[in-house]
Amino acid sequence: QKTIAKIATCLELRSAALQSTQSQDEFKLEDLKKLEPILKNILTYNKEFPFDVQPVPLRKILAPGEEEHLEFEEDDEEGGAGAGSPDSFPARVPGTLLPRLPSEPGMTLLTINIEKIGLKDAGQCIDPYITVSVKDLNGIDLTPVQDTPVALRKEDTYVHFNVDIEIQKHIERLTKGAAIFFEFKHYKPKKRFTSTKCFAFMEMDEIKPGAIVIELYKKPTDFKRKKLQLLTKKPLYLHLHQTLHKE
């Protein structure tokens, strides 16, 4: 378990290196390849780990779909689970926002301000944050995934964020049918893992300057948008504000 946790740390370091624009102190592909023999012999590996890293801390790593199974009895809204990519992998530390890309003539960049999300139990959510990703029709990432910092405050039926997300691709370069996903996550102390509570998404024809309100759907996050179920019949939404930057 310790070895797997250290491998998880190395994968996170490699992921961070791929998303970084600076070359020093990166976790290189050659480093990653050193983990292959360890993975192949994971049950019998007893040598010293090749990197001085700390195991991923106190995160429960679940098999795909296991989180939904564990939480099914807690869901207070009726209905089953949709098909999509599992949200049961260990969550990263919130707050991995990336800067705006350099502008290019004739190309448009999008800044989304996440204002607030409406939830009937907003005040009970612990360390809530939102994971933002841009996916194609097959659920494949088109840009690096970003996490907001933990929410600013909880008030009545709203969790307030007021944070800007810089979409990491010019709008003209996004593939047809792409969508921007927002996964609302919070920490569950009883189970000691971060859980996705609900998600929302915005399609390309909804990209326009100004305020927009989008509906919330039941987990698991359905990146392919095949079996969508509203989180609740109550009028609860994710409130966003879009700014377009064009040279």
From TrEMBL:
The alphabetized list of GO BP terms reads: determination of ventral identity
Q: Which family does it belong to?
A: Belongs to the AIDA family.
Q: What does this protein do?
A: Acts as a ventralizing factor during embryogenesis. Inhibits axin-mediated JNK activation by binding axin and disrupting axin homodimerization. This in turn antagonizes a Wnt/beta-catenin-independent dorsalization pathway activated by AXIN/JNK-signaling.
- Name one molecular function that GO assigns to this entry: phosphatidylinositol binding
Residues annotated as region Disordered?
69-95
Which top-rank group of organisms is this from? Answer: Eukaryota
| Organism the protein comes from | Toxostoma redivivum (California thrasher)
One GO CC term on file: membrane
Could you tell me what this protein is called? AIDA protein
PANTHER family xrefs: AXIN INTERACTOR, DORSALIZATION-ASSOCIATED PROTEIN
Q: Does the keyword Chaperone apply?
A: no
